[in-house]
């Protein structure tokens, strides 16, 4: 049986790729968004095999005007978004003083600004219908300060805080908000962020299919916070008790290259 429409950003790989197929298997029509048109077409074919409609829209959310264009395209096609999945995001590795300013600003645009803008654009329609779900993909990095990835960690902290606050505001509205906070996961993120040789990723990673499935289940159950893996849950609990300078020092060591 066909369900509603899901708008999913960052759909061309990793968690987004797996989530798209989980939604399709359950009968949800999809609006999949990413920069790479070729990968979107591949995903479209996979998901259409489940008998659902799939709209592939190639947009670079690092460009503010393309966020607006995405909304205009969805509105033009009269597609009611029942579930919004803000999954697009990236990180970079190195000292802040040596980082490329434009890359940092694009990271903030994708990880924070586009997520916030898309939520603002589609949320009122959900509230008016008194039903809807929002999944914001953050990271356990949102619980820490992250030397060598200072901007990325800060952006995930925003996503986590924003999601928890919004969930509280929307109680009783029929709309739920879920923050998915995975730890190290084999998604391809680590390659773009140059983290594949770090202690963090050499110390063991979770399977992307497992993380996506746990996130999907948490979203459908209306959970506010989903942290896949008992080690990750233990970490997020322990950092609340430890001195912040110690936690920051540990975070730097874990992210250092071996």
Architecture overview:
With 258 residues, the protein is α/β, with parallel strands linked by helices. It has one domain (5-255): 3-Layer(aba) Sandwich (Rossmann fold). Helix content is 50%, strand content 14%. The protein has ten helices and seven strands. It has helices at residues 14-25, 37-48, 64-76, 101-129, 150-169, 189-192, 199-202, 208-220, 230-238, 244-255, and strands spanning 5-9, 29-34, 54-58, 81-86, 132-137, 175-180, 225-226. A seven-stranded parallel β-sheet has the order 3-2-1-4-5-6-7, sandwiched between helices. The protein is globular. It starts with a strand and ends with a helix.
Search tags:
seven-stranded parallel β-sheet; Rossmann fold; alpha/beta; 7 strands; 258 residues
Structural class: alpha/beta
Order of helices and strands: EHEHEHEHEHEHHHEHH
The overall pLDDT average reads 92
Specify the overall morphology: globular
CATH first level? Alpha Beta
Amino- and carboxy-terminal Cα gap: 50 Å
Proportion of residues in β-strands? 5-15%
Number of strands: 7
Helix content: 40-55%
Cross-sheet strand order for the largest sheet: 3-2-1-4-5-6-7
Question: Main sheet, how many strands, which sense, barrel?
Answer: 7 strands, parallel
CATH topology type? Rossmann fold
């Amino acid at each position: 049986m066909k369900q509603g429409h899901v708008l999913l950003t960052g759909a061309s790989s990793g968690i987004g790729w797996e989530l798209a197929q989980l939604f399709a298997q359950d009968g949800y029509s999809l609006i999949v968004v990413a920069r790479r048109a070729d990968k979107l077409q591949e995903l479209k074919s996979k998901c259409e095999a489940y008998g659902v409609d799939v709209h592939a829209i190639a947009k670079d959310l690092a460009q503010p005007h393309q966020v607006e264009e995405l909304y205009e395209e969805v509105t033009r096609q009269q597609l009611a978004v029942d579930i919004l999945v803000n999954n697009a995001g990236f990180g970079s590795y190195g000292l802040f003083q040596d980082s490329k300013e434009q890359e940092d600003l694009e990271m903030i645009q994708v990880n924070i600004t586009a997520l916030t803008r898309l939520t603002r654009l589609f949320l009122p329609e959900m509230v008016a219908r008194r039903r809807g779900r929002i999944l914001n993909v953050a990271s356990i990095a949102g619980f820490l300060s992250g030397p060598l990835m200072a901007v990325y960690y800060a952006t995930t902290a925003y996503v986590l805080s924003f999601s928890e606050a919004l969930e509280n505001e929307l109680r009783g509205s029929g709309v739920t908000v879920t923050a998915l906070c995975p730890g190290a996961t084999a998604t391809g993120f680590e390659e773009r962020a140059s983290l594949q040789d770090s202690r963090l990723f050499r110390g063991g990673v979770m399977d992307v299919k497992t993380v996506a499935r746990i996130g999907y289940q948490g979203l459908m159950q209306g959970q506010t916070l989903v942290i896949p893996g008992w080690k990750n849950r233990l970490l997020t609990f322990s950092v609340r008790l430890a001195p912040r300078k110690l936690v920051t020092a540990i975070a730097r060591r874990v992210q250092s290259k071996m």
